[in-house]
Design goal:
Blueprint (H helix, E strand, L loop, with lengths): L19 H5 L8 E3 L10 H11 L4 E3 L2 E3 L2 E2 L2 E2 L6 E2 L9 E3 L5 E3 L1 H10 L3 H4 L4 H12 L3 E3 L18 H7 L2 H9 L2 H12 L1
Helix pairs in contact: 3-5
Length: 195
């Protein structure tokens, strides 16, 4: 805090707490938003890499780790079947995961603010889903900083109750995907996947 960090108390929005209180704090935004998880150890170069990626493509969501969504027979395939992203090209099918850090463009911040707190009903434990579907609806693509996904080490002793256990292992991401993406969202993704 002596170096300029500000700490604000917030209601608990689950994993959405990393961005949603910021959206509530202002009517307009002058800078993109960077998010990070509190249970990882990031390198000293981490923030600069996100800022550099944002300068290269200020309209995209940039991240260090993304999945490539899979669309099958008019539905979004199970989350566990999605492969890692292996490209730096922006795409609506690239699904940014916040675990390694993301930077969100101004236009998406305004769209998220307008979308309100519907995430509490459809995907309360999956912030990445809500961030992706709103980027899709706003016409904003996601891109990975490097062609290979990057995963940072966890802080020891922090993973016994992480969302990975319920969302991935117990497939709760799939339930939240069904509740979050509309038929129109899926049709758009399916059309993109055919190209």
């Amino acid at each position: 805090m002596e170096r300029g960090a500000e700490v604000h108390l917030s209601p608990n929005f689950g994993p959405h707490t990393k961005y949603y209180p910021y959206l509530l704090s202002a009517d307009t935004f002058g800078s993109p938003l960077v998010t990070a998880d509190d249970d990882l150890l990031y390198g000293k170069w981490w923030l600069e890499g996100l800022l550099r990626a944002h300068r290269e493509d200020p309209e995209a969501v940039s991240c260090y780790r993304a999945h490539r969504m899979k669309i099958e027979n008019g539905t979004i395939a199970p989350y566990q079947t999605w492969g890692p992203c292996s490209s730096t090209n922006p795409s609506f099918l690239h699904f940014a995961t916040g675990v390694s850090g993301c930077i969100y463009p101004l236009r998406l911040l305004h769209s998220l603010k307008d979308a309100g707190s519907e995430f509490m009903r459809v995907c309360p434990k999956a912030d990445d889903l809500w961030l992706h579907v709103n980027a899709l609806r706003a016409g904003i693509k996601s891109r990975q900083v490097w062609s290979r996904p990057l995963r940072f080490p966890f802080v020891p002793g922090t993973q016994s109750g992480g969302l990975y256990h319920s969302n991935v292992i117990l497939a709760r991401n799939d339930e939240q995907i069904r509740d979050t993406y509309t038929a129109s969202d899926i049709a758009q993704l399916e059309e993109i996947s055919r190209r």
